[in-house]
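User: Predict the complex.
Assistant: Input components as received:
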Amino acid sequence: MNQNLPKPLADALTDEERATYEWQMWSPGFGEEGQRRLKNSTVLISRCGGLGSVVAYELAAAGVGHLVIAHGGVVKHSDLNRQLLMTHAWLGKPRIETIERRLKDLNPRLKITPIGENISDDNAAELVGLADVVVDAAPMFQERFAMNDQAVAQGKPMVECAMYDLEATITTLAPGGGPCLRCLVPEVPPAWKRRFPVFGAVSGTVGCMGAMEAVKLLSGLGEPLFGRMIRLNLREMRVRTVKTYADPACGMCGRHNPA
Amino acid sequence: MSAPVSVTVPAALRPQVEGQETVSAPGATVGEVLCGLREQYPAFGEKLFPNGGEQINRSINIYVNEEDIRFLDNFGTPVTDKDQVDIILAIAGG
């Protein structure tokens, strides 16, 4: 686990922040200390589509101090069934602009580092380096591996969210011991396609869970999904949990965390 | 003959098993159960073992009662009709 987490306390909350966050500060084990840790925290989210929009919105609402958000392209009609930070009025305009605008509408105190391109091997080292926690919500495995490899190299935890149709999976990858993404998915799945069936309520469900994982990591609250993966089946409404392990033969985390 | 063992199928592979959430086949090991399913549902078998080979699709992990068979006895992992076998296919965001 990253020795820098949970985050140190930020300066005392303002009266406005106390009033805004009092409902969550009533949660046992969180309190004003937890809120001050969130205020002092940075989360990288890429991309900010169906999953990432909800993660970002929930973290902005929760009072995380700084979001680094990477998402390229312009808003399209096909975004609007699930990408809740995109709006009809912003069709054809850069997604990152509406993401920033809508998050600031919710929380004007939030610092945002907007990146108008998707994460890649070219920018992952710098962007992961800014973050305390990485939330992987990207549709392409090349992007997911770029974040994973830097999270492993830099010792950052990564919340791994995914979906297809009415199913979703979520796990949290701890640096320095647990599995990394490549332990679970050794190579880019050749049959995976960027466009696939999904409902916004599915991405929203797992997005909220991903945001909760980030809050827990940053504040020290509760028990993150280390070594466990939840598989949600919203078609038949079943939830399964399986255990995950580091693969000793993994070419990524095995190299950085030799036994 | 062993009693059928239930196997849950991920959404992306359900078209290959007539849309079913769960399929079953007899077998005393994970490998035997998967062989049975491969015979019942050849298109599903092709997704599990591409090109008619013996190597599992690397995008797929198989769990018995929450445990990844790679960390048990892989396809030799024993199963009974009391066990739950889950197939999880790598998926992403969007």
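The two ends of chain A are 15 Å apart (CA to CA).
Let me know if you want any component modeled separately.
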